[in-house]
Specification:
Blueprint (H helix, E strand, L loop, with lengths): L2 E3 L4 H5 L3 H7 L6 E4 L4 H17 L3 E6 L5 H10 L4 E4 L15 H9 L6 E4 L5 H8 L4 E2 L3 H9 L5 H13 L4
Parallel strand pairs: 1-2, 2-3, 3-4, 4-5, 5-6
Helix pairs in contact: 2-3, 3-4, 7-8
Length: 174
């Protein structure tokens, strides 16, 4: 299994039945990461969507940013399941030189309102980042650096390049 993300949610919201969630995600996905949920949107239709997802055995994972208010953190903590994705920085995704100094306080604010596991991503691109985030969160999400590793390798060397990258990130390659 894995986690599917949404880019355009209108079709999903309009088709939020057990049949859609159960049939579309049959066995291949463990949850749905909702990337663009506005605070007020959760309350408008979330109960029926969550009921259908739960019936299909799926989790709903939301993103929180360092700029999230304590009220929004509370709403996400109440409605989310599986884990909460904590964005490590404000701005756009991509490799960074260092993990934000503000991350420990942000993770502390989220932990104060939930028992769900926390995953941290955005800008995680080195083993040092993984170690730093690992002291604060339950999981690390590596996106842009993973994609860049694949994109920069010659086609016939991509499997080996990503294997080496993952060994480095996990600490197995040292």
């Amino acid at each position: 299994g894995g986690v599917a993300g949404e880019a355009v949610s209108g079709g999903v919201v309009a088709r939020r039945s057990e049949e859609w969630w159960g049939g579309r995600m049959d066995g291949d996905v463990d949850g749905w990461g909702y990337m663009t949920m506005q605070s007020g949107s959760i309350m408008r239709y979330e109960d029926s969507t969550l009921d259908a997802m739960k019936a299909a055995g799926l989790h709903m994972m939301y993103l929180l940013a360092p700029t999230s208010t304590n009220q929004r953190i509370g709403v996400i903590a109440e409605h989310g399941s599986g884990f909460i994705y904590c964005v490590s920085v404000t701005g756009i995704t991509g490799a960074r030189a260092a993990v934000s100094d503000e991350l420990p306080a942000f993770i502390g604010r989220v932990r104060a309102q939930t028992k769900l596991p926390l995953a941290v991503g955005f800008g995680i691109s080195t083993r040092k980042h993984v170690e730093e985030v690992g002291r604060l969160a339950d999981a690390t999400v590596i996106g842009a650096a993973f994609v860049e590793t694949i994109a920069s390798a010659p086609r016939e060397q991509r499997s080996e390049a990503i294997r080496a990258f993952m060994e480095e990130m996990s600490g197995r390659g040292t």
